[in-house]
Write a structure and sequence with these properties.
FAD/NAD(P)-binding domain, globular, 12 helices, D-Amino Acid Oxidase, Chain A, domain 2
């Protein structure tokens, strides 16, 4: 098999890259270790930055998002029993859209299928070779048969546990990591959201987040121990804890309903530099993980491949490697800003085991300042709706 770009991973990064390359007239093949059913049902993040929304719209992927996505003009920070609204629309002119990651993946797969592009699901024993030469090869098994895919470049979009990042020779990459002393217990519940915007709650018993996936489904999270077992959390215990943490002086609470999914997710900050080696370019969770507090994970992945697609298009069209050579530099500048914001949101909303009374009062002062200062609120809003791209591209509007 022969293609211009081999893309490892059919998550948002890999599929969006394939879509953008198709629009630029560049051939690609996407390889995915899991089944189509698995990747289309894998529940992940659900808040899209304004720039991600604009990209989906300008590239022909936004029809279903516009129809069923939930437009949010603000968020609420709650602490000391009171809710405080941050009006992102008024502060920045932009907003965010709640539209689940697996729905974006469904739209991307459908677009890929309609365009005749190739996605090879259930690709086993994938390995990449020759990334430090001029003719890289991807070897994999499909239906028990060993196959080879020859290409010009490889895009490693296969996530934190993928095979692409470990394929880079030792000593090339530098990793920066922070493991947090807590996790999120997340649930989906068959309950109509009791309000229209997200509520981030700082409570003495730990952080909680009110969100939603549709007009009939509520998404909720609560801070828990990273070593806890989901088996220890009965539905009744989860609801008791959520209702306790969300109780506000104005009487607002989430609606209670049947829990259809529940899981515990550990939290980390993780960045690997550089994001490229030879003919291999890494994107998305393969090179960076953010705590979900700032809603940046999928948005960063989309931003990465937006830069990469532009750089590859420039290379194939003109022979120039100027943008390709700067891929890591351009992406990492935005990634570290998103890491800073995600860490900051996490630090002001969660309870840290080692926190002393001074730290606790300082945290309350930070929340008070953010919700009472227009300048501080605007800084939060600017980061939440998404910082601008550093490099204009053909998909900008």
């Amino acid at each position: 098999m022969q293609t211009q770009v081999a893309i490892i991973g059919a998550g948002p990064a890999g599929l969006m890259l394939a879509h953008l390359l198709h629009l630029a007239g560049i051939e690609s093949v996407v390889l995915e270790a899991r089944s189509r059913e698995y990747v289309e049902s894998r529940v992940r993040a659900g808040v899209l930055e304004q720039g991600t929304v604009n990209l989906l719209n300008t590239t022909g992927l936004g029809e279903r998002m516009r129809r069923v996505g939930l437009l949010h003009h603000g968020i609420e920070l709650a602490f000391a029993g009171k809710r405080h609204r941050i009006d992102m629309q008024a502060l920045t002119g932009d907003a965010v859209t709640v539209y689940a990651q697996h729905e974006v993946v469904k739209d991307l797969i459908q677009a890929r299928t309609l365009s005749g592009g190739e996605i090879i699901f259930d690709a086993a024993n994938v390995g990449i070779h020759g990334i430090d030469g001029n003719s890289p090869v991807v070897r994999f098994e499909k239906d028990g048969s060993l196959q080879e895919l020859h290409c010009t470049y490889i895009a490693g979009c296969d996530g934190f546990h993928g095979i692409c990042r470990p394929s880079v020779p030792k000593g090339v990459l530098t990793t920066y990591e922070r493991i947090y002393p807590f996790a999120w217990l997340g649930i989906l519940a068959d309950a109509a959201p009791s309000q229209d915007e997200l509520v981030y709650m700082n409570h003495d018993r730990g952080f909680a987040l009110f969100s939603m996936r549709s007009p009939k489904v509520t998404r909720l999270y609560l801070q828990c121990d990273p070593d806890d077992d989901i088996k220890n959390w009965s539905d009744d215990r989860i609801w008791d804890e959520l209702l306790l943490r969300f109780r506000c002086k104005d009487g607002w609470l989430p609606n209670v309903g049947k829990i259809t999914q529940k899981s515990i997710t550990p939290m980390r900050s993780f960045v690997t530099e550089p994001m490229q080696y030879g003919r291999l370019f890494l994107a998305g969770d393969a090179v960076h993980i953010v705590p979900p507090t700032g809603a940046k994970g999928m948005n960063l992945a989309v931003a990465d491949v937006r830069v990469l697609a532009q750089a590859l298009a420039e290379n194939f069209e003109t022979g120039s490697k100027t943008l390709l050579d700067r891929y890591s530099e351009i992406c990492l500048r935005r990634i570290w800003k998103a890491q800073r914001f995600s860490w900051w949101m996490t630090s002001i909303l969660h309870k840290f085991p080692e926190a002393n009374p001074f730290d606790q009062r300082r945290q309350m002062a930070e929340l008070d300042y953010v919700t009472s200062s227009q300048v501080a609120s605007q800084s939060l809003a600017e980061n939440y709706v998404g910082l601008p791209m550093d490099v204009p591209d053909r998909w900008s509007n």
